[in-house]
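Please decode residue identities from the backbone states below.
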């Protein structure tokens, strides 16, 4: 009888410990402004630096006016940039700054 009671208590304690270890954080729901919030910055590192350098070079090649801002007309020279121009133009001013360009076209790691 004592063994049975001890096993029952042990089982209850183990179940309680397992339950206590569960993550009780409520699931996060997407806020209305989640779609407009910029993605988190990718981690720094050699691969990220190389990607940034390559994208900067593409931006500079497309920016034939050398204004530091990419127009829709300039973006037409690159099909992917042209297709995603409006989405990348986060402030909706009709041009892409290098920061907007990099944020839009860097792959998330």
């Amino acid at each position: 009888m004592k063994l049975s009671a001890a096993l029952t208590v042990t089982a209850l304690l183990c179940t309680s410990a397992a339950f206590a270890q569960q993550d009780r954080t409520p699931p996060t729901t997407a806020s209305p402004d989640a779609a407009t919030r910029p993605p988190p910055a990718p981690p720094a590192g050699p691969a990220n630096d190389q990607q940034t350098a390559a994208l900067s070079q593409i931006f500079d090649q497309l920016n034939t006016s050398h204004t530091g801002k990419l127009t829709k007309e300039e973006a037409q020279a690159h099909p992917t940039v042209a297709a995603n121009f409006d989405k990348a133009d986060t402030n909706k001013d009709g041009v892409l700054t290098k920061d907007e360009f990099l944020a839009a076209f860097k792959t998330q790691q």
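Observation: The longest strand covers residues 69-71.
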